[in-house]
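Work Package 3 (structural annotation) set out to generate three-dimensional models for the target panel prioritized at the project kickoff. During this period the team completed the workflow that converts sequence records into C-alpha cells, so that structures can be stored uniformly alongside our sequence database. As a representative example, we reproduce one entry of 169 residues exactly as it appears in the project archive.
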Amino acid sequence: MTAKWLAVAPLFLSLASPGTAQTSSSAKVFGGARIDEVYRIRLDRDDLVLESILSTIKKYNIQDGAVLTGVGSVSECTYHWVSTTGEKAVDKYTTIKGPTELLNMDGIIAAGEPHLHMTMSQPDKGAFGGHIENGCKVLYRVEVTIAKFAGTPLERKPNSAGIPVMQPK
C-alpha cells in the first residue's frame, strides 16, 4: 500500500497546487482546493435521491465540492444521456420502473450546482446510466457521501458552443 501511494503522490501533489495549469492535452486543472468537511447521507424508502442531495447542498452551503459515491436501490428513476456527437448536445430522457440497483453515483458541485452521473443495473437490461434527474425514488436505501471543498471555488459558464464548463469563480 505504501509503495503504491508513493508512486502516485507526485500526481496528487501536482494537482493540488494553487491556480490553473494547462497541460499539453489542453486539459484545465484547477488546484488549490482541500476537503473541508464530509457529509454522509442515508436515504430511506421513498426518499427522492437528487432532491435530497440538492437539499443537503443548500442546507450546508456546499458551493464547491464533490459527490464521492452513491449506492443503493431505487424503485423508479429518470435520467438522461447525450444522444449525438454534434456541436450542441441533444439529450434523451427515460424513466425506468421496478427494482433497480444504483451501482454508483458521483460528480462535481460548482457554485452550488451538482453535475451528477450514475450507473444502474437491472437483470434484464444489464448496466446503464446517465445524468440523474428529479424523481428517482429510493427502494430500500441509498447512501451518499459528499465532500465540501475549501479553497479556490469553481463555477460553470457556457463556452463558445454554449456548453457549461468549469472555471475558477
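Confidence is low (pLDDT under 50) at residues 1-17.
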